[in-house]
Amino acid sequence: MTKICITDGADKANGLKYIKDSVGELAAKTGATLSVSNHGERRALIYDCPDYYSDILQAEIADRVAEVIVVGYKYEYFKTAVKSCGLNETEREILLTSLIAADLAEDKKYAFDRVKAVNEIAIDGVLNFRLKPLKNKWKDVAEYMPAYFAGSQLKDFVSFLLENKKKRTYIDDQKVYDNYYRRLKRCSLMEGGDGEIVREVLLSNCGEVEIRGALPETDEKYLKEFYGDRVYFTQNDNAF
After folding, report:
1. DSSP string, 118-187
2. What's this model's pTM, rounded to 2 decimal places?
3. What percentage of residues in the chain have a pLDDT greater than 70?
4. Are 57 and 49 within 8 A, CB to CB?
C-alpha cells in the first residue's frame, strides 16, 4: 500500500474538503481508504492506496492540491492585496475571480509540477517554500492594479480575458460543467455571495456558455454583459 498525506492549517478546511470531495470517486474505484486526522492547528487527509493505482490517485490529488493553491490561496491573497475601489461587492468578487482566471492554467501547471510526485504534501508549506516565484508574480499583479476600477473597466477587462477562448461551458440546473461535462466547483474555494455561477464560468476559461434552466438575476445579468451572443439556451437555441 502507498500512503498519501495532505495537510494544511485548520483554518483551510474548505481546501481539504474540496480535495476529499473531488477525488472521492476515484479513490473508491482504486480501492483506497481515507482517514481524516486533526492535530492542533493542522488537519490531514491520509489515503492508503494499493500500489498498482497509486500513481493515478497521486496525480489526481496533486491536480486538486494545485487548484487549492492557485484558486483558494490566490483568492485570499488578492482579497487583501488588491486595493482597487469603485466596484460594488459582486463586481469586486468578479474582478478577483477574473484575476485568478487570467493565469489559472499557467499557475496550476507550475504548482502541479511541484507536487505531482510527492506523497506528503503540506499545502501551505509548498506555497511558502516551493512556490515563491508564483507568490512574487501575484504580488506584481496586485501592485499593477489601478486604485480605482469602474464597472465599464471591469467589462473591458473581462472581455479582454475572454478573447480567443474557444471551449464551451455548460450550466445545467444552476450547476456548472466543463466541455467534458465534468462538474466544476472551484468557487467553493472562495467566498460565497451573488454571482457564484458567473464566477465559476469565468474560472472555466471558456468562450461560450450553454444554459439549461433559469438563472439567478445577478448571474444572468453578468453573463449577458461578458459573453453577449456567445450565451445559448438549449431549450430554444436562442442567444441572449
Report:
1. -SEEEHHHIIIII-HHHHHHHHHHHHHS-SB--HHHHHHHHHHHHTT---EEEEETTEEE-TT--B--GG
2. 0.93
3. 98
4. yes
